[in-house]
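Late entry, written up from scratch paper. The run itself happened at the end of the previous shift, but nothing got recorded in the book at the time, so transcribing now.
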Amino acid sequence: MLNIGKLAKAFVIIVLGLIVLTTFAIYTVVGMTIHDQAFFSSLVLHCSIPAVKEFDIEPVSGIKKQVISIACSDGSNIYAWYFKKPEAKKLVIVNHGAGGDIRFRVHIAQAAIDAGYSVLLYDYRGYALSTGERTLDSIMEDGLTVYDYCRKHLKYPAENIVVYGESIGSAVTCHVAENRKIAKIILQSGVTTLPEVGRFIFPWLNIYPDFTFPKTQIDNVKSLKEIHVPVLFIHGLLDAQVPSSGSKKMFAAANEPKELILLPGSGHDDVGRKDAQQYSSAIKTFLQK
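Output as recorded:
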């Protein structure tokens, strides 16, 4: 006679085994997908492709923008706005965050212009009117390409260039500061490391170890230990995408002179529009020192 109890037990063991194997297979496949930089780049770097006419504006009062096309080594072109303030001898280069385009960073330009600087806003390759493909590595290269253009073609000496990084752009800024001579850096809503930020944005990534994430040059905590220029950190205390604890951690790692400004009413995407006076004052004070 068949032993129903043993058959039932064997069936349960087989089902549990299949569940474990399936779970492991899914975990492995997803982990391999995450490790692919092209996939992770598309997950992190996001933007819309607006119509050309949407850039036909003069966003800064009193200063007419100059539209610049910056050639990249792969044949692509970076689209940029250059705001030349009369008599200004210094420049702020803005490396923006993962979403949107330069139209949404005009408040950064205005704050720097009010402090007596000229400003260059640009979009990474694959963003808005810039051509080419965007990846976590390509945006780092773009930062160097734009800096070199400002040195060679706009004729700014290294000691007159300040580099501003917003969100993921903070990694681009740190990369530039490690590889080129600059005067100062500003890190707004900055990231720390790729795994740390990825896990905060996508909590399910907590089940994956660091080595699962793609290899990139994004580790601002490590970079800041090697950077020896004045640093201003700005972060909104209401930031639900990149926690302000990251800026505190980077501030602790950075060399002197350094300053940390925490904006009580700002989140991630509204820094400079919320707490506007405190934001503008911090930028102006830092740039004019």
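The chain has one domain: 36-288.
(Scratch paper discarded after transcription.)
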